[in-house]
Amino acid sequence: MPDQNNPPDGDTIFARIARKEVPTEVLYEDDLVIAFRDVNPQAPVHALVIPKKPVRNLLALTVEDRELAGAILLGSAEVARRLGVAETGIRVVLNAGSDGGQTVPYLHAHVLGGRPLTWPPG
Ligand code: AMP
Question: Does ligand 1 lie within 6 Å of residue 38's CB atom?
């Protein structure tokens, strides 16, 4: 019996967005990553950067994914510039696994900005 809350990487909503199967306003895209707005923003700017290749989370990356890992960070910075928060600053968050608070099992970087963010996280 498949676990509906824990589908294979390729069956998640983000996989469908990466495959352009879901209409999405694309904020940034290159050959490795694609960025779009979070549907439930936690800050005035809240975008997600995902790999086009399905990967479950940060912990599933391998040394073969070095370029992809870099592309996620560089894409996050580019999204911040495009959304006008590079000057005021951002926080990039990668939740991985259950204790990390990951709810969608497809690698994604949160790009948050537009207000001062508190620390530590909950
Ligand atoms: P996480 O808890 O780190 O797995 O983050 C998942 C994020 O995905 C949450 O911030 C959700 O609001 C966001 N989200 C879920 N479905 C969508 C969607 N269809 N489009 C954009 N963001 C989504």
Answer: yes
- Across 19-48, average pLDDT: 98
Domains and CATH numbers, the chain: 13-113 (3.30.428.10)
The β-bridge partners of 37 are: 47
Rounded (10°) CA dihedral 7, 33, 58, 110: -90
108 is annotated as an active-site residue? yes
> Order of strands, edge to edge, in the sheet holding 33-37?
28-29, 33-37, 45-51, 109-113, 90-93
Name the active-site residue from 52, 56, 108, 110: 108
The answer to pTM > 0.70 is: yes
